[in-house]
Amino acid sequence: MLELLDIAVAGRVVDGVECPRLQDVTLRLQPGDTVALLGASGAGKSTLLAVANGLLEPTRGVVLWQGETQARTGRRRRRQQARIGTLWQDLRLIEELSVQQNLNAARLAAWGWPRALLNLLLPLETEVNAQALRQVDLDPALLGEPVAALSGGQRQRVALARLLRQQPTLLLADEPLASLDPRLAQDLLALLLAQAAPPRALLLSLHRPDLIGGFSRVVGLRQGQVVFDGPPSAISPEALKALYAGEPSTVEAR
Fold first, then answer.
1. According to a count of CB atoms within 10 Å of the terminal CB, is the N or C end of the chain lower?
2. Predicted pLDDT of residue 150
3. How far, in Å, are 154, 187, 246 from residue 41 at the CA level?
């Protein structure tokens, strides 16, 4: 499905030494994979997701989507965008537009510009959008509300509903549970994992290692490099501590 091969992304130069954001990263995702991406702040998790999404072109390496290199422009690029959905940490909702218009924005790559413009004038696909809100435990009565009027938790769930509306083959998520209470975080994680049944896959950046049990794989990043890639059962508490504490640069599987 998605292959990141020998990926590097340049970073800052500190005291004459380059500190790359990603270095020598190789990662392959297959249909049905549910991958938790772990690492301390600054380890490169968001950068890796941006490369996977196609928004960031790597300094070195190859990105393959379904066996083809990622397109930068044109119709093939739009087709790829429609199949890769991303839930960003900053949500990227349009505050001035309604919840309904934000949900329909997930379909713009598939619709094209004429229907996209119509979305600004008419409430399109109301029942489908209502069902997307129900999936994330929100009242469909919110469809006509501007996003600016919502609470932080409601906005996070609207962003997740927008991802579900896109119906992507690959779901990417950048710490989507960070500002949610424990019960809702568990519910939404279960929903994301359920969405990743074949032919779909999920790559999700987590700030809570205690939630990795439901994933098929864990990928650990440290200083822009993959130091672990395996099942959750193979990473020990000591290895997790080293991953976040910046202790040895290699995380040993048990």
1. C
2. 95
3. 25, 25, 11
Structure tokens at 66: 């379904």
Given the structure tokens 């066996």, which residue do they identify?
67
CA distance 93 to 105: 9
Q: Which residue, 169, 116, 160, 117, is CA-closest to 138?
A: 160
Please give the Cα distance from 93 to 188 (Å, whole number): 18
Tell which CATH classification among 3.90.950.10, 3.40.50.300, 3.20.20.70, 3.30.930.10 matches the domain 2-245: 3.40.50.300
Torsions phi, psi for 216 (to 5 deg): -80, -25
Extended strands (E) in 132-238: 170-174, 201-205, 217-222, 225-230
Element (H, E) at 69: strand 68-69
**Collapsed DSSP state (helix, strand, coil) of residue 98:** strand
Q: What is the pTM of this model?
A: 0.85
And the tokens for 41? 């702040």
Residue 55 has pLDDT above 80, yes or no: yes
Rounded Cα distance between 29 and 92, Å, is 25
Domain boundaries along the sequence of the chain: 2-245
